[in-house]
Write a structure and sequence with these properties.
The complex is a heterodimer of chains A (113) and B (114).
Chain A lengths: L2 E4 L4 E4 L4 E8 L5 E7 L6 E7 L4 E4 L2 E6 L4 E6 L8 E9 L2 E7 L3 E6 L1
Parallel strand pairs in A: 2-11
Antiparallel strand pairs in A: 1-3, 3-8, 4-5, 4-9, 6-7, 7-8, 9-10, 9-11
Chain B lengths: L4 E3 L2 E4 L5 E6 L6 E8 L3 E9 L2 E4 L8 E7 L2 E6 L8 E8 L8 E2 L3 E5 L1
Parallel strand pairs in B: 2-11
Antiparallel strand pairs in B: 1-3, 3-8, 4-5, 4-9, 5-6, 7-8, 9-10, 9-11
Classes of the chains: A mainly beta (113), B mainly beta (114).
């Protein structure tokens, strides 16, 4: 069955460092991969989208890579700030059903001053 | 742009009661999704609509759940009768366009069934 895995343990880093979050998937061939940020008590907020034929995408301090051979996406936040503390979710679309965005369970990031 | 609006924000009800959750998508968006989020299972897609028509309801857990979209600016998710295991945060999201478009989420309804 299709599976999307994100590290369930929180990632703790110091302000100024680069945070790297991982999204692995199995039994899936997504055409699109998206990353969202979720703060407590709020809905997820879209950050970045990357297509299957793209290796890397950047937006300000954010960078996403997509390796369809490894079935993995990495999400980087450079020069991290305490305000970056949140849960980050990856979401896949394509394969068996377009229009259906399937989410991972998310990884909580804590950036300490 | 007011974003996706959900009501109520919190709902506490007793087992066996009917619960209705409401969603107003972003104006002009042609897709609407209902998700449920729990600690154990994360975000699960329940059902989605395209141009007010239900396209895929394979994620709806059982017949106790039903969803409607009578027009482009309103959708409901109903649970009847409710059970304690339905306790979760229910999110509505909308988007403009098909695959590859970002979802815009509301802030959810936290449902507690006692």
């Amino acid at each position: 069955s299709q599976k999307i895995e994100q590290n369930s343990e929180a990632l703790n880093i110091q302000e100024g460092k680069t945070a790297t979050l991982t999204c692995n998937y199995t039994n899936y061939s997504p055409a699109y991969l998206q990353w969202y940020r979720q703060d407590p008590g709020r809905g997820p907020v879209f950050l970045l989208l990357i297509r299957e034929n793209e290796k890397e995408k950047r937006k300000e301090r954010l960078k996403v890579t997509f390796d369809t051979t490894l079935k993995q996406s990495l999400f980087h936040i450079t020069a991290s700030q305490p305000a970056d503390s949140a849960t980050y979710l990856c979401a896949l679309e394509g394969g068996t059903g377009f229009q259906k965005l399937v989410f991972g369970t998310g990884t909580r990031l804590l950036v300490s001053p | 742009d007011a974003g996706v609006i959900q009501s109520p924000r919190h709902e506490v009800t007793e087992m066996g009661q009917e619960v209705t959750l409401r969603c107003k998508p972003i104006s002009g968006h042609d897709y609407l999704f209902w998700y449920r989020q729990t600690m154990m299972r994360g975000l699960e897609l329940l059902i989605y609509f395209n141009n007010n028509v239900p396209i895929d309801d394979s994620g709806m857990p059982e017949d106790r759940f039903s969803a409607k979209m009578p027009n482009a600016s309103f959708s409901t998710l109903k649970i009847q009768p409710s059970e304690p295991r339905d306790s979760a945060v229910y999110f509505c999201a909308s988007r403009l366009g098909g695959e590859g478009s970002p979802l815009h989420f509301g802030n959810g309804t936290r449902l507690t069934v006692t």
